[in-house]
Every structure is written in C-alpha cells, then in structure tokens.
Amino acid sequence: VDLMHRERRQGGSTITQQYVKNALLDPTDFSISRKIKELILAIEIGQFYSKNDILALYLNEIPYGARAYGIESACKTFFPQNTDESDKDKRCAKNINLSQAALLAAMLNAPSFYSPYGGHTDKLIARQHLVLDLMTEQKYITEAAATQAKWTEADLKDPTKISQVQNLYANLDPRFAHAILYTQDFLEGKYGTKTVTEGGLKVITTIDYDKQVAAHEAIKANMGNVRSLGGSNAAFVSTDPKSGHILAMLGSHDFLDEKFGQVNVATAERQPGSSFKPIVYATLFGKNKDASCAKDRSCATYGPGTTMYDVPTSFGGNPEYKPLNFGKKNYGVLTARQALAGSLNIPAVKALAMAGLNNSLQTAQSLGITTLKSSADYGLSLVLGSGEVQLVEMANAYESFANGGQHFEQTPVLKLFDQKGKTMEDNSKPKKPKQALDPQVAYMMADVMSDNNAKRYVFGNSLDLRNGCSNISARGCIHYGVKTGTTEHFNDAWTVGFTPDITAAVWVGNNDNKPMNDAAANIAAPIWKSYMNAVLGGQANAGWEKPTGVKTVSLDKQTGRSVVAGTKDTTVDVFGSWYTPMSGISGKTAQIDKISKKLATECTPELAKETVHSNAVSPEITRAENPTQYQLWLTALQKSGYSTSGGDLPTESDDVHHCDDEKPKVNILGASGGGPYDFTVQVNSGTFAANKLQVYFDDQIISTQVINGSGSYNVTYTPTEGGSHTFKAVVTDAALYQGDDEQNVTVTNVGGAADFRTTEPDEGDLVKIGTRTFRWTDNGSASYTVFVDGVSKGTTSSTNRSISVTVGPHTWYVQDAEGNKTETSAFTGIP
Hints:
By secondary structure, this protein is an alpha+beta fold.
C-alpha cells in the first residue's frame, strides 16, 4: 500500500517484523528501504526459528512501560511478589499466573495508554477480559478459568495483586507531569512505544511554562471552593487557536494524590453538559447556507436573531421527553442569542431538532471531537451534553469559534528530533488548517458567546473577566466568549471559553462520578476566570473582524418574520449572507367577533373580540415536520395577540351579538360561616345558554365546571388561611357573555394541607394528547377524586391517575376524602 500511494499509509506488521525493526534496525527510520530490509530479515529469521522462539525473542525485547523492557522486567515491575527467592537469578516471569499474563498481553498494544497506573484503566481491564474471552473461544482455557482470572479496576489498586510503583514518576515535576505523559502517549501513538522509549528522541513540547504554572495556581487557589460544593478534582486544558498547540494541561488538581492524581481527566470521556450547545447552534446558523432552494419555510435559514419559544414542551417518546430549564423557569418569546447566552435547555433542544442530529454530529467531528460517533447512539438530549467527550478535544473545538472557523489538528509537540539530530517534526509554523465552520458562522458564534449583556438575565456578572467587553462592538477591553456546562445531576461542571489568541477549558467533578452541590458557573467558572485574568492581565485585545457578508437584519420579535407596518416589537441582530427572513404579517388588521367571524361592533362583548391580520400566519416549520413545535408556535402567536386564521379580512358586521341581548346571571347561595364551605351557585342563562362556571377564592380558581344552561351547582372548599376573603363566581355563555357575583367571608376554621397540590401537568403546560399520567402530592388522605374540566375522572387511593387528554384547553384539580381541594391548574392538549 505504501509503495502504491508513494507515502506512508499503513504501519501494520507481523510480530517477526516488529522484532526485526526494534532489535536489528533503526526504528526511527521510516523509509521504504528500511521496510524492505525488515521484510528480508523477517523471512530469514522465520526460516531458522520457530514461531514460539520468535515470540520469546519478541517478549524479551518489547517495552511494557514503567521502564520495563521484556517480560522478566515487566514481571518484576508489576508483580514482584512472583519473584522466586530460592532461584539464584531470582526469576519472576516463570511464576506469572493467568490473570497476570492476560493483563500483560492486554498492555502490549500501547503500554503507555494501557498503563495500570494511568488514566485508561477501564480500557485496560476491558482488554484483559477480551484476551481471556478469546483464549476461551480458542479452547486454551475453560470459561470458568477465564471468569476467575478476570480483574476489575479495584484489583489494580490492590498491592497484593499488582505493585503500586509509588515512585514511578518521582522525577517528574507534578505541575507538568500530565502534560509530559500526554506528550509521550501522543508520540507513541504515532511512532510506536519502542521508538519513543528507546529511540533517543529529543522532544520540544508546545507547553508554555508560564501558562502551565498559571493553570496550576488557578486550580490550587479554587480547590477550597470546589470541595465546599461537593467536588474533589479538577482538570484543565489551554490551547492556541491560531495553531492548535496545547499550551497547558493538568489532568488532576494534584498529580501526587495517591487516590486519583495520576488519572488524566483531561483525556477522559465525560458528559459536557451545556458546553456542547454552541456546537449545535453553530450547525443551526449555517443550515441551508449552500442549499439550492428558495429560503422559505421548507428551506429555512437561521441566526442569532431567530425567534425561539421557551415554553414547556413535550418532544414525545416513551418515556416522554420533556426537558426543563435549569431554574425550572420559562422565558417565553426570545431570540436564539438570548437562549444560548442564558443556556436555556428547551430552546436548545428545539435548535437541535431544527439543525438535525446528523448535521450536528458532523459539525462536532469536523471540530475535532472524536468520541461522538453514530447518531443512533444519541437523541435530542445530545445538545444538553449527554454524549461523552474529552476536555482536551472541547478546547480544540472552541478554537474554531475564536479563529474564523478554522480547525488545526491539535498537538503537544513543537519540534521532534531523532537520535542523530534530524528533524522529524516541526510544528513551530502552523500547518494549513481546514475550514470547519463558515467564517460568518464562526463570527456569529463569537458575537453571541461574547455578549455579556445577553447573559446577565441568567448569570449576572458571574462570568465577567477583569476589563472584559460587554459585547463584540466594544473597544479598549478584552473580547472573550465563554460557555458553562453542568450535567443533569451535577456530576460534571465545565467552563470553556476563548479570546482570539487563547482557549481554556475546565472540568470539575469527582472521579467516581458522585454528584456535586452546584452548577458550573459557581464551581468551574472561578478556575477559568482565575486563569484567564492571570494570563490576559487585563490587557485589551482587538476582538473579531466581521467577515464579508455578515448583515444586520430587523425582525418582528414575536413571529421572527420581516418587519411590516403595524409590527409591535422588533429585534435587530446579525445574520449570515444567506439568511432570508420569511415574509412579515401585513399591517392591515381588524377586530372580529370570534363567534360570527365577522367585524366586531359596539355590541360585541370584549371576550369575543379578536385582532386579526389580512395575511395568513404560518410557522417556520409545518405541522407535518414537527407537530409539537408547530402547536407551540401557534400558541405563542395567539398569546401575543395575533390570529392564526389568516385570509382576507371580513367586510360584514357581527350579527350574532345585539345590544339588547340578556346576559347570564349568577348568585352565590349559602357561602357563610367560618368554613369549611359547602355552598350552591345558582346560574340563570340569558339569551344564550350558559356553558362554563368558574369559582374563585380571592384570586385562586377553586372550581371550573362545564355546565349546561341554568341550574344550581355545588361547590365545596376548605380554606388553608384564616381572615377576610372573597368568593367570586363567573358564568360564561355560548356567545361569550359573562356575569358574576361576589360574597365576602371571614374564615375562622382553617383545614386542609398547605402542600396538597397538583404537580403534573403544571399550570400552562402543553400536553401531548392520548393517555397521560396526572400526579399530585400525598397529604395522607384515604382517597382522591380527580376532576378535569369540572367532571370527575374517578377516585383513587394513589397520588396519580391515567387520564385521556384531548386537543384544546383544559383545567383540573384534585379533591381528597375530607373535601380539601388543590388549586385548579390549566393545561392545553396538543397533537
């Protein structure tokens, strides 16, 4: 293959060839002539020696890491208890057992990577199991023997089973140890263990002494805060976005810590939380930029000013996927800029749905993240950081936000020389990068992530650097972008950020994955800020130059469409040159009657009036593409006062309502005494039949009933607070006329439980139709009756009940056996 392509394409070789290369030839020589010599010698050795003999030669030559060369040295290093003291040569290898042999066989592929003292012990154990399973499959050992011989990671910490080699790295400065070992591992992956450990190589790393020390000091200064919030370890990586050079790396807060100090968490796979969101938003902002289609709803384009709807959302699935924002608060209509800056989860999941899972994974891979593979392994929760990545690769990925979308292959090696002084690598001048993101997309991401003003509604000033700019247009200050990430149960806290000249990434957590007590902004960000303030020194930078094509667009903030006459609220933001907003809603409006669908008159009741526009309103996606998102869009528009019916405006006037129509009447009867209350509401229809009755206790709805005309309707209620209060009954009829009545009471008998309340669905939730579980708190009652739209859905002894949900608005509450009721909650059934 190498000959055919006239370049080094493959490095595979037989054990015989490896022995010849390491023992008889120069392993740093990668020429074709050396390969030919290797082949000839391998053939000759194969003619004179048996395969067992060749294997023995190989095992006595190969390095095992930890300064051990050959199987005997490896045995004495890792299993000194095997040494035969009665033997004059004190031999060890002859006493190796099955577990030990399988472990040594597992290490051979990459002794540094699979070191029992390193950061990949889980992979070493998995490889030992593979060796034993293959031996079982090939009938060398029994299944029972294989099972008994399999070790766990705990066995690697047992000094009776394997030497702990406490002084293994005694000659390394603990501040630099992980960076050195990572560089060694990096080189062994390219050139082989033998070449690196015995080849006499001279290595100049990319590690910047001052930045490495600054990173060490930043972690050291903040470990007290980390421990107080339930964490025990931290890792750090800093890189140069203009070259891909690793400038600083700390795999743990203390390399000499006996428990986990030598585990390099900077290369471990951990969930990144919301620090993964920028990768998805970058994918969304670049979507359809090169598509040969009309940039309309079916081929939509996006940017920082795209309208998002942060409302409770069900994304279907079994179990149902219904993400919540970190503070369990919703912010309604906002822009993608605000949603990302505030790290809101619900808009982020929608962004992934619109950007596409496959597209987002491709972006991640193009930015240097290698741990995320097939889309079949992930769902919409990927945007919230459910896929595991490496800290060192996240730092590499964020470089492309800082440098105009370019991606440099990451390296810890500045220069590499062989034993004769010949240059093997020279990375002092950066290699040609690939364009991983469109320059306009990279600029938009830097713009959003450096917008400290947009972050303040969630983060306050917790992410501010000394002399940091408030936004991308500021001058005489430090331009920087930053994103935090916290996993669902506080297991991992991340902060990753950048300037045009440097990136820095921090992980904080526990090696055993125990949860912490706080989010990244309070536990990881202080380390990040300490480092950045130290290395930047408050000195202003030039920021990011706006690429050709980036444009500023004004949009209707409520709809995300073009601004037209009559637009109520606008937003101005940057977009890519390919962005095309959808047509705005016409400014021509009219008030119509909801019942007759004709022009409202002075006789039309306020509840029946609706403002409509002459053009049909349609969302950025169709119902067929995403029914849930479609319904959310409509709901948000309706709440903003827009009609979704569209079409031409009517010309005829309302002929349903007349000024002499009789309104419905309602009277509260028997609501007296100090409580609890059991009273009657008398309803009398007017011109139209009454169809809805709501009863309030002060401002709280305590009963909603669907009624059928005139009649008496019972209401029971046990107040939980004494003093002066008011009952109010409101009746609505088919034409949306209303009548009401009030009665004041003085409560002296307080009952019920203050914590007796409905929990799911909650007030304002959008619930997918079908059979859904309704839940409430347990107040110790013997039974509970569930009412939906005022109608009993049955009695149960548990605190949940399955109820069928139909499309449209609903209300519900629960009543216990003693007559206590929860507050009435409203929800909407959606397709």
